Amino acid sequence: RKRTRIPHLRAMKERGERWAMLTAYDVNTAQIFDEAGIPVLLVGDSAGNTVFGYDTTVPVTLDEMVALTRAVATGAASALVVADLPFGTYQASPEQAYLSAARLMKEGLAHAVKLEGGAEMAPTIERLTRGGIPVMAHIGFTPQSEHTLGGYRVQGRGDAAAQLLEDARAVRAAGAFSVVIEMVTADAAAAVTAQVDIPTIGIGAGVDCDAQVLVWQDMAGLGSGRTPRFVKQYADVRSVLTDAARAYAADVAAGSFPAAEHSFES
Ligand code: KIV
Ligand code: NA
């Protein structure tokens, strides 16, 4: 399989071919998802929740994102690797954004970056794109603004549908190569997908987006908490690991591990 590149994503939209994105935060999952044919891997700042155990994505640092991104890029032979710019590392100015994004590319080996925000981020998206950094935008519910938005709420209802379309058009005009649309009504996301010519990647945004994204621990059933309504769980990795850990501990307690085949003779 050849490396996924940005023009391939646009071509898939033109052909009406849907595709799936998954998050990844380490080399093993990057390899597994890459070999499973996932064309785009997102090193999400959802790592704040899924890897580091924080309540929100706000505390995630650029250093943390760089380290996770380098691991994923090392494991991804074919997938396009997109890294999230974490909170506070791009909102101050387009220059701050450029310096932060350049670190994700140079040190993290990312192929593109993602940032949250619509029309207000247009000058920043333009600056990054002109400087050789492809940008995936992220509109609708934007988790880094959880404290401003008043918690997890569905976006794009009523008048907000027009604002969502305006945001999508603005990020497209600024040069974004794709846009994540999170937790908005299916109708609002469908309208954006029909009227904007870059790929839309939905999460809790209905079936009419060009692509979908899920956090892998949600998709595979690794986490312990409640998952949002928009998640479909495809495996029960948590119980597989729990059973493995218990079986190992029981073998050790019983003296049945290590056996002769795991031991070295003199
Ligand atoms: O951080 C993340 O995982 C994300 C996706 C859920 C879109 O931003
Ligand atoms: Na994110």
UniProtKB/TrEMBL annotation:
EC number: 2.1.2.11
Catalyzed reactions per annotation: (6R)-5,10-methylene-5,6,7,8-tetrahydrofolate + 3-methyl-2-oxobutanoate + H2O = 2-dehydropantoate + (6S)-5,6,7,8-tetrahydrofolate
Spans traversing the lipid bilayer: none
GO CC annotations, alphabetized: cytoplasm
The keyword Magnesium belongs to this UniProt entry's keyword annotation: yes
Subcellular compartments: Cytoplasm
Binding residue positions for 3-methyl-2-oxobutanoate: D45, S46, D84, K114
A GO molecular-function descriptor: methyltransferase activity
Pathway noted in the entry: Cofactor biosynthesis; (R)-pantothenate biosynthesis; (R)-pantoate from 3-methyl-2-oxobutanoate: step 1/2
Binding-site residues for Mg(2+), renumbered to this chain: D45, D84, E116
The organism's place on the tree of life at top rank: Bacteria
Similarity field: Belongs to the PanB family.
Function: Catalyzes the reversible reaction in which hydroxymethyl group from 5,10-methylenetetrahydrofolate is transferred onto alpha-ketoisovalerate to form ketopantoate.
Protein name: 3-methyl-2-oxobutanoate hydroxymethyltransferase
Native species: Janibacter cremeus
